[in-house]
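Before the break, one more example. Copy the sequence into your notebook; we will annotate it together after we see the structure.
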Amino acid sequence: MIEHVLPRHLQIIYEINRRFLSTISINSSSDFKRLSRLSVIEETAPKQVRMANLAIAGNHCVNGVAALHTDLLKTTVMADFYQIWPEKFRQKFLAIKRKNKERLANIILQTARVKVNPESLFDIQTKRIHEYKRQLLNVLHII
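Here is what the structure looks like once it is written out:
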């Protein structure tokens, strides 16, 4: 589908994959099964783009939705990527997240004069809320 709808994008994805695999193959040139697992392209008929592999290859930081999910990524689902780039998984993201939560807590204190714990779970709605959207249900749940 990508080939027919977004042919130039697919060319770019192929080039990203070529460069990525050539970089990785320097370190593990004899392990073709591993290179196959790391590839952004699933070499089946028809070929498929592995979006998760593309995301990890192209980003500087990777995390799951929870610590448990991140651990699963590191040990099973994306273990090959974790072996190559352990520094991409989690710690840097957590530090950034903590700093942003502290900034938000300070903004709440300054504007609403309410002290909140930065360890709290924050749910932020940044666009206008439509009555027919799930945001309204979320607001009602918060209230």
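The chain has a mean pLDDT of 86. The chain has two domains: 2-89, 92-142. Try to locate both features in your own notes.
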